[in-house]
Amino acid sequence: SSERVQGGFFTATIDDFPDATQFRGKSEGLTAVRLLDYDETSYVNFEAEVFFDNEDNILQIENFGVHFGESGLVTYGLRLDAIMDRVKNKLSLDLMSRLLVDVTNDSSKVVSNLFAAHQKSMLDLTFLEDADNRDKFNCIIADAIHPKMPAEKYMDKEENENEIKQVIGDTYSAHDLNADELIVLGKGGLMICGPNVLRHQASVIVYSGFKARSIFMKCVFNRCFMLADVLKRARGIIENYQNNPESMDIVRKTLSTCTEEVITLGEIQTFLEESVDGLLLPQPFEGDDASQELAKILNLEDAMHRLLRRAVDMKKTIEGCGNELGALREMSAVISSVKKFTINEGIESTTKNLEDAFRAQARNSTQLEIMQVVLAGSLAFDIVDRTFGQYMSIADRIGWVVDYIQPAIVELPLGWFALNMVFWLILGGGLIILMRRLSYLGNAVDAKKIKVNRRVHIRRLASFLAQKEMEAVSIGEDDKSTVKKYTWVEEKNTAKWKGIPPRFDLVVDERYGFILSAFLQVTKRQTQLTADQIWDMFLDELAAHGVWDTSHSKESTWDGRSAALAAPARAGRALGAGQALGAGKAG
After folding, report:
1. Element (H, E) at 48
2. What is the pLDDT at residue 27?
3. Please, what's the b/e burial string for 177-210 (b: 16 or more CB within 10 A of its CB; e: otherwise)?
4. Alpha carbon of 359 to those of 366, 413, 440: distances in Å?
5. Residues of the chain with pLDDT under 70
6. Tens digits of residue pLDDT in 257-307
7. What is the dihedral of CA 454, 457, 459, 463, to 10 degrees?
8. Radius of gyration of the chain (CA)
């Protein structure tokens, strides 16, 4: 709490060992924060001391006073005591310009250690991942300026103006507030000089806040225009999606990124509008001519209205990007629908071709069966001829044929024909019964498909698969994964499989070490085991080879084991725990 912890060291460095009690590191890059004043809903003021690397033989002591306001304005303040050999008085603008470069960068690093992740993401989006080098508006308040001249003489386009440009950028105008006070306005800052100019601090800070918002708005507008260009390129890719097979993947990734950017830019625009709308403007002091003149020069009310109009314009630009994004999504959806329609047409055409092929196959199967019967008849006739000697016309030389076959069958009307038909019926019918029996045994299949998604040791799995005789290995590879599909039939082992061996398909992501899915097929009428039982046997083999990687305890360990066999295992573990508990109580 703020009562117990009034500050400390802050850093954006990630702690690689968050469970440890200490964080060891260099002091460079840290920000020492000491809380000064705060209101939980309005503001917070704190002093920040930075510890950043400096060049050798250079001592740079920087203590910032930082103000975070509810409007989103962040104000950094520091007092210059000395620069190089200039101590307190007559500080050189040449040296000050170099110091301001360091102050601008260091102030960004100060708050970078304090910003939330979402705030950093908004800054990185606006400044293209270079938020630490973002521009700021410098406000220089000095007791005096040397040489002291009328304000218009500082705008001489020569030496005097060039000196001032070093610290506030391109100069716009210079004004005398009274005989002792003057103000110079520039693109990147302002400089106000006089013996008692701190009384104008409120007006100057509000004006500086408006200029800082203007700088930020310019960056946001540029980001919106870049987003519009990205969407324009995405439209071109969609319109010519046939030229690149990966075009729709590119479009989907682009639209996803742009959607996130549009949402973030919309949040930024809302914050900007809220930070300006309803802001209370300081009023000039009555009877103070310099304050009245400063109010006319700064014209804060008109500046606020201009910012509000720009915020509204920004909202319209972001909404335009959002509308374009929606249109591109619809175009992408239409193309996806067209592709699906094309795929469905192809599937329909393929299905029709398959139906025609099945009908042709059925016809061919019938014809083949007829041809088998015909060939069986031819074979039966040949067997009868060779058995009874008709093939070589030597039947009259075979005694048992002459004594028994010729009187009983050959000389009997249609007897020889009936004998051939009987043999044909026996052989043809037996052949048909055999073919249908083989078809009957092979058609009954018990299959199981399991989605595993479990981590494994790739080397141990490779050693296990090397023991199998692979029928096929197919590889699917892209920039994100390397997926292999192994197909094999287990070796014949009637005692183990209680019939013919099963067939396995195993899909493995070898880049990240996962078994993704598996498929096994069992000929149901030729083995006594079910697919669930065989899968459980396969899991036991994997466990015996130490294939599973159990180092990630938070990941799922489900492997598709059948509930009928897993329940007894759980019951056994529970029983063992109960026995151990009972033994503990007895002890």
Report:
1. strand 43-51
2. 47
3. beeebbbbbbebbbbbbbeebeebeebbbbbbbb
4. 11, 44, 20
5. 1-31, 50-62, 389-399, 401-404, 406, 410-411, 442, 562-587
6. 999 999 999 999 999 999 988 788 999 998 889 999 999 999 999 999 999
7. -70
8. 45
Of 252, 256, 258, which Cα lies nearest the Cα of 231?
258
Contact (CB, 8 A) for 186 and 166 = no
Predicted confidence (pLDDT) per residue in 79-138, tens digit? 888 787 777 777 888 888 888 888 888 888 777 777 888 888 999 999 998 888 888 999
Going by their DSSP bridges, the two strands 514-523 and 171-176 should be labelled as unpaired
DSSP 207-235: HHHHHHHHHHHHHHHHHHHHHHHHHHHHH
Helix (H, G, I), strand (E, B) or coil at 256: helix
3-state SS class at 36: strand
Q: Which of 267, 270, 268, 300 is nearest to 282 (CA)?
A: 300
Which token pair is 14? 């990630």
Which tokens hold the place of 423?
A: 């043999």
Query: Tokens at residue 118, please?
Result: 């979402």
Q: Angle formed by the axes of helices 300-388 and 247-276, to 10°? A: 160
Q: Which two tokens stand for residue 278?
A: 């309803």
- Residue 361 has a pLDDT of 84
Q: What type of residue sits at position 194?
A: G
Q: Which two tokens stand for residue 509?
A: 């992501």
Residue 439's CB is within 10 A of a number of other CB atoms, namely 9
Instruction: Report pLDDT for 14.
Output: 60
Tell me the C-alpha to C-alpha distance, in Å, between residue 245 and each of 9, 207, 248, 481: 53, 54, 7, 19
Q: pTM for the full model? A: 0.67
Q: At what angle do helices 415-443 and 300-388 cross, to 10 degrees?
A: 150
At 575 the pLDDT is: 37
Is residue 488 within 8 A of residue 460, CB to CB? The reply is no
Of the candidates 537, 539, 536, the one whose C-alpha atom is nearest the C-alpha of residue 563 is 536
Concatenated DSSP letters for 111-162?
Answer: HHTTS-HHHHHHHHHHTTT-GGG----EEEEES--SS---GGGG-SSSHHHH
**Cβ atoms within 10 Å of 237's Cβ, excluding its own:** 18
| Helices and strands (DSSP H and E) totals, the chain | 13, 16
- Which H/E stretch holds residue 251? helix 247-276
CA dihedral (400, 403, 406, 412) in degrees, to 10, reads -140
User: Strands (DSSP E) along 382-462, which ranges?
Assistant: 445-455
Q: Other CB atoms closer than 10 Å to residue 532's CB: what's the count?
A: 18
The terminus-to-terminus CA distance of the chain in angstroms comes to 49
